[in-house]
Structures are given as structure tokens and as C-alpha cells.
Amino acid sequence: MTFTDSIRTCFAKYADFNGCAIRSEFWWWVLFNLVANIALGVVSDKLSAAFTIATLLPYIAVTARRLHDTDRSGWLQLLGFIPIIGWVLLIYWCSQEGKSPNRFVQ
Questions:
Q1: DSSP result, the chain
Q2: Using an 8 Å Cβ cutoff, are 13 and 66 in contact?
Q3: Please, what is the average pLDDT of the chain?
Q4: How far is it, in rounded angstroms, from Cα 38 to Cα 52?
Q5: In contact, 73 and 67? CB cutoff 8 Å
Q6: Which stretches of 7-75 are assigned E, i.e. beta strand?
Q7: At what angle do helices 45-69 and 23-43 cross, to 10 degrees?
Q8: Dist. CA 72–CA 68, nearest whole Å
Q9: What does pTM read for this prediction?
Q10: pLDDT, tens digit, for every residue of 34-66?
């Protein structure tokens, strides 16, 4: 999946927590959010905060779909509230290859 396809898909599935997201879709979305937040933060902190709020739901949704692709529940992203250990686990799980037969494929 290309960068633009990934952004388009994530905005099209704005609040869709069902199904799976391949690695490239997830990581392109992460890169888009990082670059956009840095660029908007240079312009205005309020603009950056508004962008973060506007993209929070699709970020959570694509993370849930990415975890589904690795045959894990999307609720596991709540481990991100545990500093360092939770972050490392989520990064590890999201970087793993997807499991082809899994319980979340519809």
C-alpha cells in the first residue's frame, strides 16, 4: 500500500474498528501523523492540537485493525497507558507480520 492509499483508507475507515490493517497501512498512517503534527506545531500549537484531536479516532481504529491482523484484540492498545513496557509491546506487535487465518478476518 502506498502512502496516499494508506491515508485515504484510514480517513475512509474513520471509525471502523472491524477487519484488518496491513503493516504498510498502519506505519504510513503513523508517519503521516508524525510529520503533520510536527509541521503544524511549527505553525501553531493550537492547529497541531486540533489536528491531533481530529485524527485521534482514526488512529485508534487503524491500530485496532492492525492488532486484529496479528490476531490480537484491539483492546490491547490500552496497554499504551503503561509507560515504556506498554509502548514497546505495542510497537512490537504492530511491527509483526500479519497472521493470515485469524479470527478477525470477515
A1: --HHHHHHHHHHTTT--SS---HHHHHHHHHHHHHHHHHHHHH-HHHHHHHHHHHHHHHHHHHHHHHHHTT--GGGGGGGGSTTHHHHHHHHHHHSPPPSS-TT--
A2: no
A3: 92
A4: 11
A5: yes
A6: none
A7: 170
A8: 5
A9: 0.89
A10: 999 999 999 999 999 999 999 999 999 999 999
